[in-house]
Amino acid sequence: MLDLLPQLGIAAADLAAAFLFLYGLHRMSSPVTAPSGIFVAGIGMAVAVLASFLYAFDVGSAARPDLIVNIALALVALALGGGVAWWSGRTVAMTAMPQMVAIYNGMGGGAAGAIAAVELYGDKAQGMTALGVTLLGALIGAVSLSGSLIAWAKLDGVINKPVRVKGQQVFNGLVLLATIVVGGSIVGAGQDGSGLLALLTKPGWITVFFGCALALGILMTLPIGGADMPVVISIFNAFTGLAVGLEGFVLQNPALMIAGMVVGAAGMLLTLLMAKAMNRSVSNVIFTNFGDAPKHKQGAIKGSLKPMAPGDAGIAMRYAASVIIVPGYGLAVAQAQGKLFEFVKLLQAGGVSVKFAVHPVAGRMPGQMDVLLAEAGVPYDLIFQLEDINDQFASTDIALVIGANDVVNPAARTDKSSPIFGMPILNADQARKVFVVKRGEGKGYAGIVNALFYGDNCNMVYGDAQAVLISMIEAVRGLGLPAAA
Amino acid sequence: MTFQIAISGFVALYIFMLAGFAGWVIIGHVPAILHTPLMSGSNFVHGIVVVGGIYALLNASTLQEQVIGFVAVLLGAGNAAGGYAVTDRMLAMFKTSAPAGSHAAHGKSAKVKSIHAKKKG
């Protein structure tokens, strides 16, 4: 009876962990309860990790001589991996959050792939089903690992431009096909590797399989541009979840299966939401080279760009009754979120009603602008999503667009030939006056001229967002107006 | 009597189906403003893969298995710890403009709750 205790402990701990993950994620559905939600999920994780050392009582006879060494190795790996990641997660700048999430996600995919590798090289996965599932999990995990690393490199600026080669999609398809053929023949081969091409041994073919899968992740992600990153990050998150779930089945661990599948489904939902916010399908994001498409004929745009001094724009907003601010990736690049809120507080002190309008795909990951504004101290009841605020632009004095471009381009509503036609946009152009803070006259990510900038009601304020906001703050302070009651 | 868990074929599919549905429903309720913390939160949850890594490493009997198992635990631990650290950091920043805003994290203020309810509706 006593020898059953470790098994019971693991089973009970995994059950508790699965429940705590679900309950924790559930609590994350409101900003009020969310901090406790992640704490609950964290307890689940701690319980499961501690209990997993009970596996030590149940190891196979082959591994018994190495058990002490293995336990020590596990503790070192936990401390090292956990410590470094914890430290980096605590110290990284909020603007670097997308690449951090990408790299942690890649680590999860890599871990799932490594578990599959142990099972495959050690011939531990027996039978067609187990082998097939292990290989599928290995493929998804490896793609998630290498793809996330490329996504990290792009977000971090290590890779500056989308890498695009002619015939790339055909080539990617061939690599995928090769991976599946190699995987299929590993499943079909006998235990000793009979049935495989005699070119390589079975472990050799397994290595080829992993090589192909890793290459596929890299090839898939290289051509994808920066503004499509919200979709890419969510899809790799879903991939890692799926890989973890599949390896959970191989290891007969329901906690891994449940946690992995929940994340897989959540990631898929988020991916679809992001794609919808761009009015594109997921496959369109992954498989077409957006922004590189043949240039369509741009409808003639009337009007001209009207530059304005930052100070004048700031003063105009101080005398307005209502202002809606539309932040975009440029705000994150300039790290200007703190200065922005300082300026907003000045306006509020003067009795100006200020709101923030956030587009679902503004920034480089879903909801990135919300996090940056929260970091600056903006209360979340001032932040509104597209569908909640879009009707209010028409009755607003001034819309201030900072570092956003395509998400406020009216061409998405009117110009059928535009590549972004049909994408839901923020109706900043309907405000009585629009100020656009922008570094230069360049086009947006989609490479389209923005008709909003040429509108009669629009002024351009050129400069780095942070420098512009500092000038605005100084100008408003210079007025020496008393604060409103 | 045994507590060994054995999940075969269709039972696994049932678990996957129910878990997938649960994930879909739970995440469907999360407001867009929390999408980043949600993503890093679910990123943290799949860090549970570290448990599988520990299992693989403890059962390793060759040097090759030990090396790969070590990598699995290392990466899995990084996933879990990093995911938790960034999620917790982000969530601590979400505040309301209500006077009791600084206590929003505890969810005890009636005013904060009423503001939130209004926003949802």
Topology of this protein?
The complex is a heterodimer of chains A (485) and B (121).
Chain A: H1 5-27, H2 34-52, H3 67-91, H4 97-121, H5 128-155, H6 168-188, H7 202-221, H8 229-250, H9 254-277, H10 282-287, H11 310-318, E1 322-327, H12 329-333, H13 337-349, E2 353-358, H14 368-376, E3 383-385, H15 386-389, E4 398-402, H16 411-414, E5 433-438, H17 451-454, E6 458-462, H18 465-479
Chain B: H1 9-28, H2 35-45, H3 49-58, H4 63-91, H5 110-120
Helix pairs in contact in B: 2-4, 3-4
Characterization of this structure:
The complex is a heterodimer of chains A (485) and B (121). With 485 residues, chain A is of the alpha/beta class. Chain A has 18 helices and six strands. The longest helix of chain A has 28 residues. Chain A is elongated. Chain A starts with a helix and ends in a 6-residue tail after the last helix. About 1% of the residues of chain A have low confidence. The longest helix of chain B is centred in the middle third of the chain and has 29 residues. Chain B starts with 8 loop residues before the first helix and ends with a helix. Chain B is an all-alpha fold and 121 residues long. Chain B contains five helices and no strands.
Main beta sheet of chain A: strand number and arrangement? 6 strands, parallel
Would you count the extended β strands of chain B for me?
0
Oligomer: heterodimer
Averaged pLDDT of chain B: 81
Element string of chain B (H = helix, E = strand): HHHHH
Helix-and-strand structural type of chain A: alpha/beta
Distance between the termini of chain B: 52 Å
The main β sheet of chain B shows up as:
none
Quote the beta fraction of chain A: 5-15%
**What class would the helix/strand composition of chain B place it in?**
mainly alpha
